[in-house]
């Protein structure tokens, strides 16, 4: 067996032009990966992590180093999908993280299925007042359940607080999200 010489390898930062080759390589190395680990989703998630500063609360918490479990992967993809402006990327992320017949239940309505959730998120992102979504807590994920707090920052300076909890199914996709808008009242 011949060992390649150092001249045959180049280590450098990722470039946008690397997407297709990396996706092809990923598919060959991990042919049976679940949908939430699709090359396009993983590349976009990692690039988004590099572009997005961590919320202050995350920077102050010493996070353990470990591979994310299925719940954490689904929730991370879901959170990033809710801010993704590119419809094609958003659709890929939605398919990877949300069950075909998944439900989002709010105080006033139930949204059932990917298509309905995609429509709701498209309308939400079309609002010119939406500046960004930030997660303001750790993502508490255990077994098949999760919960986290987030805020929607609006261009007029208002901040809308949210609490989401949910569950994933056997395929590792979110099957239920219970979404609560607004802060909890004090005692």
Layout of helices and strands:
Blueprint: H1 19-29, H2 39-51, H3 56-60, H4 70-81, H5 87-97, E1 98-105, E2 110-112, H6 114-126, E3 130-135, E4 140-142, E5 145-154, E6 159-168, E7 174-181
Parallel strand pairs: 1-7
Antiparallel strand pairs: 1-2, 3-5, 4-5, 5-6, 6-7
Helix pairs in contact: 4-5
What does this structure look like?
- With 187 residues, the chain is an alpha+beta fold.
- It has six helices and seven strands, in the order αααααββαβββββ.
- Strands 1, 2, 3, 4, 5, 6 and 7 form a seven-stranded mixed beta sheet that branches.
- A hairpin with a 4-residue loop joins strand 5 and strand 6.
Highlighted features:
single chain, 187 residues, alpha+beta, 7-stranded mixed β-sheet, 6 helices
Determine Rg (CA atoms, Å): 18 Å
Low-confidence stretches: 54-63
Taking the alpha carbons of the first and last residues, their distance comes to 71 Å
The percentage helix is 25-40%
Kindly name the structural category: alpha+beta
Apparent shape: globular
Oligomer: single chain
Summarize model confidence as the mean pLDDT. Answer: 81
Beta strand count: 7
């Amino acid at each position: 067996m011949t060992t390649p010489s150092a001249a045959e390898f180049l280590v450098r930062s990722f470039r946008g032009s690397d997407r297709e080759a990396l996706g092809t390589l990923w598919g060959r190395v991990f042919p049976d990966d679940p949908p939430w680990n699709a090359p396009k989703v993983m590349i976009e998630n990692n690039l988004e992590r590099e572009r997005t500063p961590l919320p202050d609360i995350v920077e102050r918490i010493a996070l353990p180093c470990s591979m994310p479990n299925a719940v954490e992967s689904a929730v991370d993809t879901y959170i990033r999908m809710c801010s993704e402006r590119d419809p094609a990327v958003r659709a890929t992320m939605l398919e990877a993280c949300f069950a075909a017949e998944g439900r989002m239940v709010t105080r006033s309505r139930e949204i059932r299925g990917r298509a309905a959730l995609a429509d709701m998120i498209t309308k939400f992102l079309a609002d010119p007042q939406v500046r960004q979504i930030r997660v303001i807590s750790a993502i508490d994920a255990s077994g098949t359940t999760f919960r986290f707090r987030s805020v929607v920052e609006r261009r007029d300076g208002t901040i809308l607080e949210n609490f989401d909890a949910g569950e994933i199914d056997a395929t590792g996709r979110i099957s239920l999200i219970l979404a609560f808008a607004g802060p909890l009242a004090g005692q």
